[in-house]
Amino acid sequence: MTPSSSSPPDDGQRRVVIENVTPQIDGGRFAVKRLVGDTLTVEADVFADGHDEVRANLWGRFESEPYGHEIEMAPLGSDRWGAQLPLDRVGRYEFHVSGWVDRWQTWRHDLAKRVQAGQDVTVDLQIGAALAQRVMPTATHTLTTEQALGDAFAATVAANRDRSHETVSATYAVVVDPALAGFGAWYELFPRSASPDAKRHGTFKDVMARLEYVSELGFNVLYLPPIHPIGRQFRKGPNNQPSTSPADPGVPWAIGGPEGGHTAINSDLGTLEDFDALVAAARTRDIEIALDIAFQASPDHPWVTEHPTWFKARPDGTIQYAENPPKKYQDIYPFDFESSDWRGLWQALNDVFRFWIGHGVATFRVDNPHTKPFAFWEWCIGDIKRDHPEAIFLAEAFTRPKVMYRLAKLGFTQSYTYFTWRNTAAELRAYLTELTASPVADFFRPNFWPNTPDILHADLQNGGRAAFVARLVLAATLSANYGIYGPAFELMEHTPREPGTEEYLDSEKYQQRTWDLKRADSLAPLISSINAARREHPALQSNERLVFHEVNSDWLLAYSKRSADGADVILAVVNLDYHAVRAGTLELDLEALGLPADAPYEARDLLDGAIYTWRGPRNWVSLDPEVRAAHLLWLRRS
Known about the structure:
Distance between the termini: 83 Å
CATH superfamily of the largest domain: Glycosidases
Strand order of the largest sheet: 27-26-29-24-23-22-25-28
Largest sheet: 8 strands, antiparallel
Radius of gyration: 30 Å
Number of domains: 4
Number of strands: 29
CATH topology of the largest domain: TIM Barrel
Shape: globular
């Protein structure tokens, strides 16, 4: 006999196969993301050879639990199984799927067919008794047909199933974030421009006085650009020109001076105690303070002299400043993540987050994370969230899609997106379809911004008030997380520094501005209405159940969102032509929306209070951008 070339596998008695476990990211390399209070729906293909019956369980545990618990999975058809794991704590969970051949249930099923056919089952009952004894040694050596087919005995055996040859899938991770990670409205302002007096630099106390305004607008995150000392060397003046006056405040992202670096406060803004008071005052209004964390330094940062190896030296002995040719940023030194002391640099940057967490800030907007190593972010965010699972990290990564997605997989809670540059109905439909479908939706949380201090899109430059209204409605209702850079947005700042650029003229990045918040044409009332609708309507608090509806005009975008229980339905229709009336017939899937096909239903506009009575799936919509650029309709049975 020819000898075998290898020995049989040790697990040859495991007959069950487990495949296509969902949700998972890259085969389990990265964690999926969910929110506290969510239920994780897990599905898997679980099957075996032959005709034996198979069982499957979902096992899950919170990271601090020693054992976890099991949930029996239900068959969904075609060898697909599913179960749900409640996620009731912020932190990290893990889960796996197990499957095994259920010999007892297979035998019992076959016995029932033999009894029904009138066959002799004496030997079958002996086999069944032996199976029962394998899991219950105290079981009787004899078994009657009535016992075998009775529910009581079957339940006892089932509770002690033989899982000796069980197959277990890989273990997968779930990061559960606080509710704010999934539903938030961000408002960005420069503290130095919070002063009502153009001749006086704004302070944290001025920002405290602005909190009531931010609260009335309906925002629950107040995001501040860097609040640290600003370097003096190569300081930039208005419109990114070299500073010619000691009064020029400089660029907040040029971090560091003799007073300190990333854990110091710009003395023009106040003291650390003033900042602590601001955080506390904001929280009384249910507003979280978010800080900008920019890992770079001015030439005056203490680390330049204390840790020179953390920066890249040029052959002439000078330090390499930041560049994006042909742009030069002489006031900023990037960190050298390939430094010989990279471990010391990583730890120091980690300590920056921990310092501000110690002062009540757990929400961070991270500047240009795509220019730092992936390995650093995976370690840093993972290390911090082990101690502070409530921490939220927003990635300001306007870069290639795969890089943006990698940062999200590595741990960033949310990300800026390409929303600003998706301006046609077709572009928005395609992009939102990508973002709200698996697998992207399992790890990437979009945060939509119609403007930022760096981005004034051509639509806002040329579209007038209608463009601001339309982009606001889109950002706030397509995405559960959105933000605006104000007061530039509500006051419709739209003049570029030069034609063909997205830079603001007289940008706050380079100078102090004074804003007239009481201007009659301000969009503040509209913003308040939209944020109120978001708070009051569960349909707008999630990126799930987004449906686009057909409308016979390329200029109109129509979409709906529905709450998880189906009771709340919101329909938005937006005119993307900011200079002309656009109209068309809207086609709704009434069954999917839970609305009657043969009875009238009400469409109440949450922006202006108008009420329309509609009937059937087809309804005419006309939007004049001079009157209203969008509908935000609450659909209800009449």
